[in-house]
């Protein structure tokens, strides 16, 4: 994280965890992609606010 914002890291971690849980039915790759999409979504929302 270039900004070193603890709130952003917290939001990205939560969104990544939710994305991983949602993607569990797809073996192996699903949770990884779900976590990446969740973290990217949280980062995008943060950047819109800033």
Characterization of the model:
This protein has 50 residues and is mainly α. It has one domain. The chain is built from 2 helices and no strands. Helix 1 packs antiparallel against helix 2. The radius of gyration is 11 Å and the shape is elongated. Keywords: Membrane, Transmembrane, Transmembrane helix.
Helical residue percent band: over 70%
Number of domains: 1
Largest sheet data: none
Shape, please? Answer: elongated
Count of discrete alpha- or pi-helical segments spanning 4 or more residues? 2
Transmembrane segments: 15-43
Keywords: Membrane, Transmembrane, Transmembrane helix
Keyphrases for this structure?
0% strand, elongated, 50 residues, 2 helices, mainly alpha
Provide the fold topology.
Layout: H1 6-22, H2 29-49
Write a short abstract of this structure:
The chain is mainly α and about 50 residues long. The chain has helices at about 5-20, 30-50.
């Amino acid at each position: 994280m270039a900004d070193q914002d603890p709130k952003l890291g917290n939001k990205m971690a939560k969104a990544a965890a939710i994305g991983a849980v949602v993607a569990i039915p797809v073996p192996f790759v699903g949770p990884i992609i779900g976590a990446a999409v969740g973290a990217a979504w949280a980062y995008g929302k943060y950047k819109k606010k800033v």
